[in-house]
């Protein structure tokens, strides 16, 4: 039976040099009060020091704000004081910019495996297995023939966490397991026996796998909850973690430390499936280059498919599809667990309003790795002549891939979407095309990407269909490299396209002009449920 303790007592059980798993996913599910308490203890006593922090996705937000309840003052960022964390092993640090900076400065050793690998490792460790054998990561920076997930010198000095192996003539990666000594997880209710339910949590996460991995390795499971309730009041189906797996329970004293999501202090029942809101008409996006890209990508949508849509420019697809009446029967899935419903944007991402089901992160990733997704639409920071894509290391930041590798390697049709150049541009929408007045300072089509988050070579070998969609040009991946298939009306092939790329793509002999309706104010009027006109 767990002990119900004060915050100070709970965090006193975290010793120097331990491996600590922290639950949560971006803006959701952060065990915020526990993190706050641990940071306060370190400030006061200098302990615990040199810990290894392990997460699927780091809790936090994407900003570098130093205001209360934002950026550097929330989530994993709370552990930023020098000496507290020695090493991180995290699927993505986008939401923990202070920690990402310390990794970039080589102050904290950084291992950044794919997010799906992390949650499946929790499950493997929970099940007493030595690690995880998977194809996920082959050909990317996770592969030991590239960086082996070790993104800085300190990590490289500490040693490898992933090996290449072969089974029946097929290549696989073996990610080594680890021994968690303690974990911080969060739930909504604990009953008097310590059974935990997730009633108000927007995501189910990988909290069960984290708790079992820690418990079965003799570690300490510490849970932060919103409320402690009477024995027998939690329905068995709602109990996610049995009390026998929990060592300490802390009731959050500050409601701001137990928000459903950092985006708002208000609990939103439509994110948990408790209620379904009446969906109003989706407002069409204002015409912009981002909308042009989303429109061109939406033309590829088909009916009755399961799709995953990434953050950034791809998030405009839902709105375009609604405006044009495309993709009837299409189901959206997000790697955080929910399926069906409307994916939220900004800080509310990756929550989903009116979901049809909320899977755990681990179950979702297993489905993705096995090929359940028909299509995915993802952002791109850099693309090179082999069709490799980088989203994990650019603009001086090394943040990891999150679910990007699991999704992009295992989906039949992959669409990368992004601006043709990065930084401030002056591009006029002329009604039926584009006029490029000034381009961004950074090329996105580069000779060689800084880090391989998606391997073009691996995709060709596996027969994936891959397309790269920008506001002014569209490419397809072939075994011979990138083929330019479409350019926008009004742009000059040599000056505005080929002249802005660091390599020469193959120009299709059937080079087409992009549909002029992409660039106009009016609804395109695409044929319902197909995207084709
Ligand atoms: C790559 C990614 C940043 C692109 O974002 P986007 O909003 O679609 O596209 P943008 O072109 O507006 O790029 C976002 C910012 O990155 C900058 N950027 C993009 N590519 C860059 C490059 N090659 N060099 C420098 N800066 C770059 C842009 O200038 C922009 O900066 P700003 O915010 O200061 O304006 C985004 O898709 C991402 O983070 N992807 C990884 C996460 C992911 O896909 N996870 C799995 C599914 S959720």
UniProtKB/TrEMBL annotation:
Keywords recorded for this protein, A-Z: Transferase
Keyword Transferase recorded: yes
Transmembrane regions: none
GO biological process: ketone body catabolic process
SMART domains the record matches: CoA_trans (SM00882)
InterPro entries cross-referenced by the UniProt entry: 3-oxoacid_CoA-transferase (IPR014388), CoA_trans_fam_I (IPR004165), NagB/RpiA_transferase-like (IPR037171)
Family assignment from sequence similarity: Belongs to the 3-oxoacid CoA-transferase family.
Entry-linked Pfam families: CoA_trans
Record GO terms (molecular function): CoA-transferase activity
UniProt name for this protein: Propionate CoA-transferase
Annotated source species: Sporobacter termitidis DSM 10068
Record Gene3D superfamilies: Glutaconate Coenzyme A-transferase (3.40.1080.10)
Active site per database record: 335 (5-glutamyl coenzyme a thioester intermediate)
